[in-house]
């Protein structure tokens, strides 16, 4: 028959009525079949001799091909057939129909419609159905983890708008779940959520099934994925094995996929949150009441009861001491003798500039390793832009400039003599130019010429009202400091703001002959 709405047991019942002598009109009044379709059934059965009550009706396997005859449909050739090999490969790779259609147009000048591609892909799916199986889990063996998009929360105290994510861990056997609202999917957030989830369950499962997210897997691969070093340390500390799902196969962790949807659809709607902490407080209450005591659609039991009665006793025990959360990063030492991590900077020895380090960041400290050798330790900084610098990590010239501040220069000048201190004070009195390097240079001249000659050179420079580094250096290099002065030196230079000119001289000094006469 052309209409597939009729099951074989219905057609068999219609044949029995016909064999009992009922007409097509009588059968149609029962609502089993219409008169026209009943006539078609009668003709097909009469040709086979099945209407004779004396002969037994054959089995359904014999009736079905005769009574379900279909009109032949006109055969059409798909425009995708010339490219079917490529299309089959793309379909197996998981590309969607629109992507395949645009690729055909771009590469082969395909003139057919997208509907032709869609019909061809539907035929492939019918011809090659994908069968799946249901995974069974033992108590305490597996937990599945995933992130889902959370609600947008406006903090009532600060007015901050927080876009959240929902971290969800579900124990695969009992379906008991732990969920938490977080700000991001960073490595430290990922590790912290695991620690809080294990503490919530009071134990650790033997295996954790995850997605290939960057916080856990650095390189996704079907056979040998590379695990984030920080996550590997956490797994070793807690004693669980990491089981990443293959890429684009979320059905392999369907338990947590359903758990994330349940949290998003069962907890988030129609709730008001005063902040992130308030949202997590409400979420915890919901997990221990509504979510934990519902009748699960698969197990047909309460998840909290299954967990409390069986699974919690089969989880691995928590470590005696809380596990330290550690994040590893591969960092480079820049030319300023600092590495950058989480928007903060930490110093390392200057001799290792432009080399790579492994940075180990805990909640309290940051350690830098070079070829497994510890080269620096700093307290952990959290404020963006903060910097931790150790003096021994800086090059000698930079360290000297940093250590030789104005107070150091004044102390050194006092040890040389009063003229040297007066000259240094005049350098620091400049209101326009910072003359710290000039003061350091004057003090450093004492290492070459000695403190006595430096004091004499400063005295001569003050005498001629030229308290500059270049003047002192020229006096020392020319040996002028060893020549006697025409008059007693002026130790202190008059302050510039008093109005006295730089080259002013007394009248007796300018006209000595007039005074003698």
Structure overview:
The protein has helices at residues 8-19, 24-29, 35-48, 60-67, 84-92, 97-108, 114-127, 187-201, 229-238, 254-266, 276-293, 303-309, 396-403, 406-416, 418-428, 436-449, 451-463, 469-478, 507-510, 512-516; strands at residues 142-154, 161-171, 177-182, 207-210, 217-219, 226-227, 241-244, 327-332, 338-341, 344-347, 356-361, 365-370, 373-379, 387-388. It is α+β, with helices and mostly antiparallel strands and 517 residues long. The chain folds into five domains: 8-67; 81-127; 142-313, Nucleotidyltransferase, domain 5; 327-394, no CATH class; 404-507, no CATH class. The strands form four sheets. The protein has a five-stranded mixed β-sheet with strand order 3-2-1-4-7, sandwiched between helices. A four-stranded antiparallel β-sheet has the order 8-11-12-13, covered by helices on one side. Strand 1 and strand 2 form a beta hairpin. It starts with 7 loop residues before the first helix and ends with a helix. The model has no long low-confidence stretch (mean pLDDT 88).
């Amino acid at each position: 028959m052309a209409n597939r709405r009729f099951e074989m047991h219905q057609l068999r019942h219609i044949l029995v009525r016909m064999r009992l002598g009922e007409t097509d009109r009588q059968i149609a009044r029962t609502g089993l079949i219409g008169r026209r379709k009943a006539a078609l059934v009668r003709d097909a059965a009469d040709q086979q001799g099945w209407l004779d009550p004396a002969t037994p009706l054959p089995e359904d396997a014999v009736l079905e091909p005769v009574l379900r005859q279909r009109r032949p449909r006109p055969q059409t050739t798909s425009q995708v057939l010339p490219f079917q090999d490529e299309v089959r490969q793309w379909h197996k790779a998981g590309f969607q129909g629109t992507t395949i259609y645009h690729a055909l147009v771009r590469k082969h000048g395909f003139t057919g419609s997208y509907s032709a591609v869609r019909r061809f892909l539907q035929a492939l799916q019918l011809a090659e159905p994908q069968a799946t199986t249901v995974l069974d889990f033992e108590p305490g063996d597996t937990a599945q983890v995933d992130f889902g998009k959370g609600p947008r929360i406006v903090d009532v105290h600060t007015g901050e708008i927080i876009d959240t994510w929902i971290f969800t861990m579900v124990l695969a056997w009992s379906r008991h779940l732990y969920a938490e609202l977080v700000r991001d999917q960073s490595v430290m957030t990922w590790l912290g959520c695991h620690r809080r989830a294990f503490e919530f369950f009071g134990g650790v499962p033997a295996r954790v099934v995850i997605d290939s997210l960057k916080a856990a897997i650095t390189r996704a691969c079907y056979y040998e994925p590379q695990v984030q070093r920080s996550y590997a340390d956490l797994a070793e500390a807690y004693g669980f094995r990491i089981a990443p799902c293959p890429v684009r196969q979320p059905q392999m962790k369907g338990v947590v996929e359903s758990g994330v949807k349940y949290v998003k659809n069962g907890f988030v709607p129609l709730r008001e949150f005063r902040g992130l902490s308030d949202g997590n407080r409400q979420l915890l209450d919901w997990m221990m009441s509504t979510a934990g005591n519902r009748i699960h659609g698969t197990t047909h039991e309460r998840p909290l009861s299954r967990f409390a009665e069986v699974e919690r006793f089969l989880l691995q025990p928590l470590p005696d001491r809380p596990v330290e959360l550690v994040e590893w990063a591969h960092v480079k030492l820049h030319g300023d003798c600092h590495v950058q991590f989480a928007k903060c900077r930490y110093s390392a020895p200057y001799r290792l500039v432009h080399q790579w380090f492994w940075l180990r960041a805990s909640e309290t400290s940051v350690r830098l390793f070079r070829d497994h050798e510890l080269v620096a330790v700093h307290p952990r900084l959290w404020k963006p832009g903060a910097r931790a610098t150790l003096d021994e990590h800086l090059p000698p010239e930079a360290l000297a400039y940093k250590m030789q501040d104005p107070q150091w220069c004044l102390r050194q000048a006092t040890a040389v003599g009063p003229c040297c201190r007066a000259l240094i004070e005049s350098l620091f009195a400049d209101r326009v130019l910072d003359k710290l390097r000039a003061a350091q240079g004057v003090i450093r001249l004492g290492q070459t010429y000695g403190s006595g000659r430096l004091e004499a050179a400063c005295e001569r420079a003050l005498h001629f009202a030229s308290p500059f580094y270049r003047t002192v250096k020229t006096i020392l290099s020319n040996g002028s400091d060893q020549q006697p002065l025409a008059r007693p030196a002026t130790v202190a230079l008059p302050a510039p703001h008093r109005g006295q000119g730089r080259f002013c001289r007394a009248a007796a000094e300018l006209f000595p002959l007039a005074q003698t006469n």
